[in-house]
Design a protein that fits this description.
Two copies of one chain form a homodimer.
Chain A (H helix, E strand, L loop, with lengths): L7 E5 L3 H12 L3 E5 L3 H9 L5 E3 L4 H6 L2 E4 L3 H11 L8 E4 L5 H10 L5 E2 L1 E5 L19 E5 L6 H14 L3 E4 L2 H24 L12 H7 L6 H10 L1 H23 L3 H15 L5
Parallel strand pairs in A: 1-2, 1-4, 2-3, 4-5, 5-6, 8-9
Antiparallel strand pairs in A: 7-8
Helix pairs in contact in A: 4-5, 7-10
């Protein structure tokens, strides 16, 4: 396998996801290096054996020694980093990312990249309501989905390498989607869910509701605890797909509301039977 | 305590919730009797030691021997049952229920009831996506909320008895609300959540989405697997409160959608900061 020759891994951005990649790869025997501007994140990772080497500034020797690099940065920062530091990389290395939106990232990065380096995008569909390397945990990948997002400029070797990375990290299902398919999917499955959770918390300022609630409200609002810096950026970078899924949802919501207003019990039951049937697709 | 003199408990309706009450009370030493029209439910409960006695038809001797009765029936069936069989009860007994809506039940039942029997309503905020006594489990009450819903016609003794019932069942928090407060609360915290989950499943017929989803979509749609007979009835019995919370939600949704359309990053971040702050109220 290509992968076994790439044993020095550089992780740029050591937060929850970068840290979880680091833990998983180090446990598998890779030599893991990390760069993060936050000294506390690097200190924590070194003290806890999450990485082998760490730096708070871009270290030419470290970047130059990497056989592969994984970017776990916000989309805009990722593009800036590549533009500024790509000359430090070894020829021939594969670069991947973990960014939650793809169309606005992948093409720009591939356009600006040196021809002897290949960028192959991926999206690990895993996370937590907390952020920071101190919450990182490789177990969040188990049972989770991993999507490789190639363009026509990617080689079969890089796509294979990236799928293999998902496998060694322990993901349960690995898929391949185009950037456009990915962003439409994520606008619905992830961003719309976060929008609904955020909106639900705007509906009431009654703190005492916690004394009455069952599990359903807790489930629908778990992700209302949200990293606003990251998600506001992701929302706006995927604005068209998000607005589209918001509109689809609102139109179905209006249709259901009308059934309730009309007292159409049979219509309500049919909608519930459909939802019960479709939800079974998502049983783990 | 009043409760210790009431050691023969009759449960009418032996589904998920009735069965969970039966398990909890039997374990505490009460003599538990159950009536359910489904022979399989009664047979299962007897075979598995969930009840001491069971009947598939209304048994005068059983009803007449009960020191207390708990109704776990759909709202309309509950009212019919009381109208038809209340003469069988001993004088002086306390009756309670587990119904998910109150305004349309409590006053009607209290109006029709013999003056020597007292009905005190309660709502155990616990459940599962499955139905039937075979899924019953007393552990669903732990960590859960229990709401006693008295009217001006209830005595302090019955209210105290009903709170005590919630305590012995093992609920974590016991509150008291009027029927109107209860129904408004439930329209938002429970019914709107179920409506959103059902609507989300109407948005896409793409079975492959399961290969890409993270946990957020699973969380928001867990309750899309829904007992359509029960929930369609509950929705329509609480129509005004449900429509009100749907409208509040939709108006907040529109406001958030506008922030996205306007590319108002600061506005989106403020909404996310508010949701993060408020969600902390609901941490267990």
């Amino acid at each position: 396998m290509e992968w076994i020759n790439r044993d020095r891994v550089l992780i740029v951005g050591l937060g929850l996801i970068g840290g979880s990649y680091a833990r998983a790869l180090k446990r598998l025997g890779y030599y893991v290096m990390a760069i993060d501007t936050d000294p506390q994140a690097i200190a924590y990772a070194l003290e806890n054996g999450i990485v082998d080497e760490g730096a708070t500034e871009v270290d030419s020797a470290m970047v130059g020694s990497a056989d592969t690099a994984i970017f776990a940065l916000y989309p805009r920062v990722l593009k800036e980093w590549i533009a500024q530091y790509q000359d430090l990389f070894k020829p021939g290395i594969f670069i991947t990312d973990v960014t939650g939106v793809k169309g606005c990232v992948v093409y720009d990065v591939q356009d600006m990249l040196r021809p002897d380096i290949e960028f192959i995008a991926a999206h690990p569909m895993a996370g937590k309501e907390t952020s920071g390397v101190q919450y990182s945990d490789a177990r969040i990948f188990h049972d989770a989905n991993y999507v490789v997002v190639p363009t026509s400029r990617n080689t079969p070797e890089a796509i294979e390498w990236c799928k293999n990375l998902g496998q060694v990290l322990g993901f349960a299902r690995i898929s391949v989607l185009s950037p456009e398919e990915h962003d439409e999917m994520i606008g619905f499955l992830s961003q719309l869910m976060h929008a609904i959770a955020v909106v639900l918390m705007a509906c009431s300022d009654n703190e005492h509701l916690a004394n009455y609630t069952g599990d359903s409200f807790r489930d629908l609002t778990r992700i209302a605890r949200i990293n606003d810096a990251m998600w506001s950026e992701l929302f706006l970078l995927n604005k068209d797909a998000l607005l589209h899924s918001m509109d689809v949802f609102e139109s179905e919501f209006d249709r259901f509301r009308q059934l309730v207003e009309d007292g159409d019990k049979e219509g309500i039951r049919r909608a519930m039977q459909l939802s019960t049937e479709r939800r079974a697709w998502f049983d783990k």
